[in-house]
């Protein structure tokens, strides 16, 4: 059975960039609903329930057709949000720079951290309707940007997400209304680069 992970900070810790009310609803209602619905979908499937969410999604073709879409929707919602909380931390987190092999790879693939942030922002802005922007490690260990609709997880395509931005309206509408660009710009101030670099190291060594 899957459980809702605790936030690694207080609900108001990301202010002024993400407000407390949004965090309480986003984590305690939206993410919790994905976890609850995933568990409901997996009732009677003990073997599947025992797998880590990443493995469950990686092996989505092994999930019975009758529950596969529910696992994609709610398992993806669980995995995506579990990543999202970890790659943020209270400001001024995003004012620093990532270090080590991750930064070298960013500069190699995107020429600079600023260019990467520009391209990631463009990817997030190009999501039509509800979805996510991701930085992923592909099976060939390359770094690339992806845009996914709804709660589709990079894992179901064989990729490992190391950075993800939720651009569903529930992630920002209370504070930013229709100003998605302002939300994305503010979000860079709370990116936990240390965690993203760890995600990168783990992904390339797996």
What's this, in brief?
By secondary structure, the chain is mainly alpha-helical. About 50% of the residues lie in helices and about 10% in strands. It has a 3-stranded antiparallel β-sheet with strand order 2-1-3.
Largest beta sheet: strand ordering: 2-1-3
Query: Can you tell me the CATH architecture?
Result: 3-Layer(bab) Sandwich
- Rg: 17 Å
| Mean of all residue-level pLDDT scores | 95
Give the CATH superfamily: Iron/manganese superoxide dismutase, C-terminal domain
Question: Distance N terminus to C terminus?
Answer: 25 Å
- Poorly predicted sequence stretches spanning 5 or more consecutive residues: none
Q: Sum up the overall morphology in one term.
A: globular
Structural class: mainly alpha
Largest sheet: 3 strands, antiparallel
Structural domain tally: 1
CATH topology: minor pseudopilin epsh fold
Instruction: Enumerate how many helices there are, as a single number.
Output: 9
In words, what does this structure look like?
- The protein has one domain: Iron/manganese superoxide dismutase, C-terminal domain (minor pseudopilin epsh fold).
- 50% of the residues lie in helices and 10% in strands.
- The chain contains nine helices and three strands.
- It has helices at residues 20-41, 46-49, 53-58, 65-86, 100-110, 113-125, 173-176, 180-187, 193-205, and strands at 131-137, 143-149, 160-166.
- The longest helix has 22 residues, at 20-41.
- The mean pLDDT is 95.
